[in-house]
From TrEMBL:
<comment type="similarity">
    <text>Belongs to the enoyl-CoA hydratase/isomerase family.</text>
</comment>
<dbReference type="GO" id="GO:0004165">
    <property type="term" value="F:delta(3)-delta(2)-enoyl-CoA isomerase activity"/>
</dbReference>
<dbReference type="GO" id="GO:0006635">
    <property type="term" value="P:fatty acid beta-oxidation"/>
</dbReference>
<keyword id="KW-0443">Lipid metabolism</keyword>
<dbReference type="Pfam" id="PF00378">
    <property type="entry name" value="ECH_1"/>
</dbReference>
<comment type="pathway">
    <text>Lipid metabolism; fatty acid beta-oxidation.</text>
</comment>
<protein>
    <recommendedName>
        <fullName>Delta(3)-Delta(2)-enoyl-CoA isomerase</fullName>
        <ecNumber>5.3.3.8</ecNumber>
    </recommendedName>
</protein>
<dbReference type="InterPro" id="IPR001753">
    <property type="entry name" value="Enoyl-CoA_hydra/iso"/>
</dbReference>
<keyword id="KW-0413">Isomerase</keyword>
<dbReference type="InterPro" id="IPR029045">
    <property type="entry name" value="ClpP/crotonase-like_dom_sf"/>
</dbReference>
Length: 242
């Protein structure tokens, strides 16, 4: 499902196995549990989170097969999907409020909620030889949850044409295209280099020795509409060093 290791000052959260890493309730709950573990430990010293995945996929989005399989006479597949949508919003809030820098090392396909998971990190490093970013909702006939729209506006909304292509064209972006469109920050040749580059970036960020509470406070202030949409209110006061 997923694992967490700490290498020096860097946490590496890995979606494990060779499956699609679809976001069902169990996986969402597990990721949140690991983020809670990081949150408890992070104030001890400057650190950074890297989220990555094994296999062909970073994440193929919500587990639609689970939604159908778990339907009952009183619970429809659509209700199960909406349940996952509700469960995922607090995970977005967890990442927005985490008191350390975050990096997604996207080493495979990231679709729909998997795409959202990637860009909810502060930085995205993506491989160029395999994998695409893709919002599949238009192609399969599903509306975007409102907070998905806020994620995209906050993270890739600098150019309305990029939002149009991602949301209204369901364009599949390879690494090179995603970099040119400003959706990801760094593109590397393969998965190994992608993770290595993410680690190097993490080491650079850790070396700045920022105050984690200040860092998360500034991050949340950058995206007020998104924070409000996922139920996150930045109320913490951090005394100045001055």
């Amino acid at each position: 499902m997923c694992s967490l290791v700490k290498r020096g000052s860097i946490y590496i959260l890995t979606l494990t196995g060779d499956d699609d890493h679809c976001l069902n309730p169990d996986l969402i709950t597990k990721i949140r549990s690991l983020l809670s573990e990081i949150r408890s430990d992070a104030p001890m010293s400057p650190s950074c989170l890297i989220t990555t995945a094994q296999g062909k996929f970073f994440s193929n989005g919500f587990d639609l097969a689970w939604a159908k399989r778990s339907s009952t006479p009183t619970t429809s597949a659509l209700q199960n999907l909406n349940h996952m949508v509700s469960l995922f919003a607090p995970l977005v809030a967890d990442l927005l409020s985490l008191p350390i820098p975050t990096i997604a090392a996207v080493t495979g396909h990231a679709a729909a909620a998997g795409f959202m998971l990637a860009i909810c990190h502060d930085y995205v490093v993506m491989r160029s030889d395999r994998g695409v970013l893709y919002m599949s909702e238009l192609d399969i006939g599903l509306p975007f949850p409102p907070y998905f729209v806020e994620i995209m506006k906050a993270k890739i909304g600098g150019d309305s044409r990029v939002l149009r292509d991602v949301m209204l064209r369901a364009k599949k972006l390879n690494g090179k295209e995603a970099k040119e469109m400003g959706v990801v920050d760094i593109v590397m040749d393969d998965g190994e280099k992608t993770l290595k580059t993410a680690v190097e970036l993490a080491e650079e960020l850790v070396g700045r020795k920022w105050n984690g509470k200040v860092y998360s406070s500034i991050r949340m202030a950058m995206f007020p509409n998104l924070c409000k949409c996922v139920g996150l209110v930045n109320r913490e006061f951090v005394p100045s060093k001055l």
